Amino acid sequence: MKHSTGSYYAVIFTSELNDNPEGYTEMAHKIEALAKQQKGFLGIDSAREKTGITISYWETLEDIKNWKTQSEHLIAQQLGKEKWYKKYTVRVCKVEREYGK
Amino acid sequence: MKHSTGSYYAVIFTSELNDNPEGYTEMAHKIEALAKQQKGFLGIDSAREKTGITISYWETLEDIKNWKTQSEHLIAQQLGKEKWYKKYTVRVCKVEREYGK
């Protein structure tokens, strides 16, 4: 993951898919590839079992807003929200501290 | 998930496991069960593929601090950080807004 010079933000996207989410995998890859080219993009983590979790990291709230507009446009073209997701939650968060190994 | 009356926090834990993380699954279940009993606990989301992601939600930073002390004590008893994790990152975040369906 790239490092932000100051504070940064995380967008937590949790979802449950419908039983037959046609076109979902292709679109998910496309969206991830596009996210990586956006201004302010720092990194992404994702995993799916019953619940899918994707966390993307961004330099500013403005970067997140721009990305939201773009990604929603893509998904809307595919009517994706209705087709793919049984439910989903988006949480925009400010990372206050981090540690690890 | 329980709803907080005001603002709330998310602890994002991402990790990669070692090849033979002996005792990990049992301990992960034990820790999740214990988290659910803590003051200020609101909910948890988790999924694992190559990367494991666990996000727990809490009412206050004080609740997170208390939980950190307790969970680290449990894990330390098992020497878990050395045995289980190739690497991990913990991010403490303030949830600024959320939406979904």
Q: What would you note in describing this structure?
A:
The structure is a homodimer of 101-residue chains. Chain A has 101 residues and is α+β, with helices and mostly antiparallel strands. Chain A has one domain (8-95): Alpha-Beta Plaits (2-Layer Sandwich), CATH 3.30.70.100. Helix content of chain A is 34%, strand content 41%. The first copy, chain A, has three helices and four strands; from the N terminus they run βαββααβ. A four-stranded antiparallel β-sheet of chain A has the order 2-3-1-4. In chain A, strand 2 (41-48) and strand 3 form a beta hairpin. The model of chain A has no long low-confidence stretch (mean pLDDT 92). The A-B interface holds A 10, 12, 14, 45-53, 55, 61, 81, 85, 87-101 and B 10, 12, 14, 45-53, 55, 61, 81, 85, 87-101. Strand 4 of chain A pairs antiparallel with strand 4 of chain B, so a sheet runs across the interface.
* CATH architecture assignment of chain A: 2-Layer Sandwich
Q: Can you tell me the CATH class of chain A?
A: Alpha Beta
- The span between the termini of chain A is 14 Å
Question: Which runs of chain A of at least 5 residues are low in confidence (pLDDT < 50)?
Answer: none
Mean pLDDT of chain A: 92
Characteristic terms for this protein:
homodimer, 101 residues, Alpha-Beta Plaits, 34% helix, 41% strand, globular
Q: How do you describe this structure in short?
A:
The first copy, chain A, is an alpha+beta fold and 101 residues long. The first copy, chain A, has helices at residues 24-35, 61-77, 80-84, and strands at residues 8-17, 41-48, 52-58, 85-100.
